[in-house]
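4.2 Preliminary Data

To establish feasibility before requesting continued support, the project team ran the inverse folding procedure on a target of 324 residues. The structure was first converted into the token representation described in Section 3, and no sequence information of any kind was made available to the design step. The complete token record follows.
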């Protein structure tokens, strides 16, 4: 029988792409999402979507038995914490604990949860899981709390709970995130509208832009690893630093326009993330993970997808199975 995986935040950007990837690889996926940001139309009709807040205890009674959980639900960026600090922590921490309790009750084999490269802040690069952290905002604080809870929970109950420190993830179907979407998407949207992309500072800051397909592959490798993993932290990235100026250069070439960004003084001050590139040593050694999508190929895929007008709508079916 196909392995059943619960993806919380499954109607969101990473969730819908991981759900599609796992379904295509023989898994049965159930998505749980409160649709506060994600969209039901991000998911194809054959993926069961249960709507509900992960922090709400009753919601978990309706979730069917699953083998493993991928936990992505919750506020997905720093500005959300600024606009609702208490609500964001409630959703992140209580939602995480409720998920863990569910997984323990159901004797789930493995849990993967999204941490973030932001826990590294401006730590020396390449960013190493065992290296220093530099936590300078509430979003990163919340992610670090999850890592700490996961560690204690795994020790106490002997469960495999793997935190993935995701770098800067881009790819298809993140329109719902609007101004909170990855810079790759935002710059594409700006250029399509004839607007200048806004760049903080002089554009030399770097990001490890990682295609969401590579995230999905990394998750599958974690799910299928035959040995116990305990409480583990793994970077997921490409190991390549790309400056925003270089990104603008790639977009200019692929979109056939000469893009002149609008450089503005950085409003975030000292806490701004100036550099980001993951060490992939650990994930390569343990899982054999290697990124496979180049930035050029990933951007071309988005451009083709948008030209075809398939943006989120193609799989939007009225007969999709939704449990409310
Ligand atoms: N996209 C990135 O570059 C990136 C980088 C590092 C970490 N992450 C983490 O990965 C996860 C997924 O991010 P994403 O980019 O797909 O963002 P997203 O906002 O598209 O996905 C999050 C999903 O969770 C849902 N959600 C929010 N609160 C919920 C709740 N209380 N109960 C149920 N569902 C809820 C939203 O509706 C949304 O569909 C997040 O935890 C984010 O912090 C993302």
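Position-by-position output of the design step:
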């Amino acid at each position: 029988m196909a392995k059943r995986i619960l993806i919380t935040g499954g109607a969101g950007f990473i969730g819908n792409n991981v759900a599609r990837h796992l379904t295509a690889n023989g898994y049965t996926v159930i998505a749980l999402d409160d649709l506060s940001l994600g969209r039901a139309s991000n998911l194809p009709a054959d993926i069961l979507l249960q709507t509900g807040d992960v922090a709400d205890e009753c919601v978990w009674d309706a979730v069917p038995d699953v083998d493993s959980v991928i936990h992505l639900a919750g506020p997905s960026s720093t500005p959300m914490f600024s606009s609702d600090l208490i609500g964001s922590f409630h959703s992140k921490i209580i939602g995480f604990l409720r998920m863990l309790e569910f997984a323990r009750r159901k004797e789930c084999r493995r849990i993967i949860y999204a941490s973030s490269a932001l826990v590294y802040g401006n730590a020396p690069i390449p960013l190493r899981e065992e290296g220093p952290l530099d936590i300078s905002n509430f979003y990163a604080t919340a992610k670090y709390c999850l890592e700490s809870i996961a560690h204690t929970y795994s020790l106490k109950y002997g469960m495999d709970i793997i935190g993935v420190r995701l770098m800067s993830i881009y790819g298809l179907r993140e329109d719902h995130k609007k101004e909170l979407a990855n810079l790759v998407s935002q710059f594409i949207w700006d250029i399509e509208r004839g607007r200048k992309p806004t760049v903080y500072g002089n554009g030399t800051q770097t990001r490890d832009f990682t295609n969401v397909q590579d995230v999905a592959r990394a998750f599958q490798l974690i799910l299928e690893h035959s040995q116990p993993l305990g409480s583990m932290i793994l970077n997921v990235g490409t190991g390549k630093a790309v400056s925003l100026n270089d990104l603008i250069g790639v977009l200019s070439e692929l979109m056939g326009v000469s893009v002149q960004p609008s450089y503005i003084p950085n409003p975030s001050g000292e806490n701004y993330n100036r550099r980001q590139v993951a060490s992939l040593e650990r994930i390569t050694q343990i899982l054999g993970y290697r990124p496979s999508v180049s930035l050029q190929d990933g951007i071309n895929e988005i451009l083709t997808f948008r030209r075809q007008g398939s943006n989120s709508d193609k799989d939007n079916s009225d007969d999709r199975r939704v449990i409310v």
